[in-house]
Write a structure and sequence with these properties.
Helix content: 40-55%
Order of helices and strands: HEHHEEHHHHEEHEE
Radius of gyration: 19 Å
CATH topology of the largest domain: Muramoyl-pentapeptide Carboxypeptidase, domain 2
Structural class: alpha+beta
Number of strands: 7
Largest sheet: 4 strands, antiparallel
Number of domains: 2
Shape: globular
Length: 213
């Protein structure tokens, strides 16, 4: 029988780690969490058996093949909006009745509304400050993400998608998020990786200039 994962549990910690670093090996998980490999294997085997994680075989290099783990479809839904099935049906209905061009225009309009709702919380300040505040807000809304910096660019990596289940085959949601970020940060954002296109995570880069000394 499948259990409900509790946010403060060891299993939840493992699932979040896999979401951030997949594909990841058992040894890498054990090192990150601080468990012995035997204990980690027991936890991971159970998560695989219950459908939260997927196991695959990685070949390459001189060593023996190793198992690597990633979030399953069921695992990704832990971070998705619980109304996704209804909304996916609603989107399909709009596309069928009104056409895909009107659906895309509607999604863009929703993005503008979301930007308006988030703008007071994101606030003013430098583009760099606003990206970090936006990252915190997205995390509060269920989007597990990280911000990294390199040569004047900030990279916002979304490991889980708050629109998962709705956005399957619809890159418009990623573009909506990109445009929303551009509007809130005041700098052009670039979508470099997109889950609906088959990538493991979405990546949006923003040229914010060098960090302050």
């Amino acid at each position: 029988m499948r259990r409900t994962l509790q946010p403060d549990s060891r299993q939840w910690e493992i699932v979040v780690l896999v979401a951030r670093q997949s594909p990841i090996t058992l040894a890498e998980m054990a090192e990150n969490v601080g468990l012995a490999r035997t204990s980690m294997r027991q936890q991971v085997d159970r998560l695989v058996a219950e459908g939260w994680l997927d196991r695959a075989r990685r070949h390459g290099g001189r060593g023996r093949p190793v198992d690597v783990f990633s979030l399953s479809e069921q695992g990704r839904r832990l971070f998705a909006n619980r109304t996704d099935e209804f909304l996916r049906g609603l989107l399909q209905e709009i596309a069928d009745k009104q056409g895909w061009s009107k659906l895309r225009a509607a999604i863009k309009g929703v993005g503008r509304r979301l930007a308006g709702q988030l703008r007071p919380a994101v606030g003013e300040g430098t583009p760099r400050d606003r990206v970090h505040r936006l990252s915190d807000l997205l995390a509060e809304r269920g989007a597990l993400n990280d911000v990294t910096s390199s040569k004047g660019n900030l990279k916002l990596t979304l490991h889980t998608c708050p629109y998962h289940g709705m956005s399957e085959g619809l890159g418009e949601f990623c573009k909506m998020e990109r445009d929303m970020i551009s509007s809130l940060v005041g700098k052009k954002a670039h979508l470099t990786h997109c889950m609906p296109d088959g990538h493991a995570r979405c990546v949006i880069e923003v040229d914010v200039g060098p960090a302050r000394p």
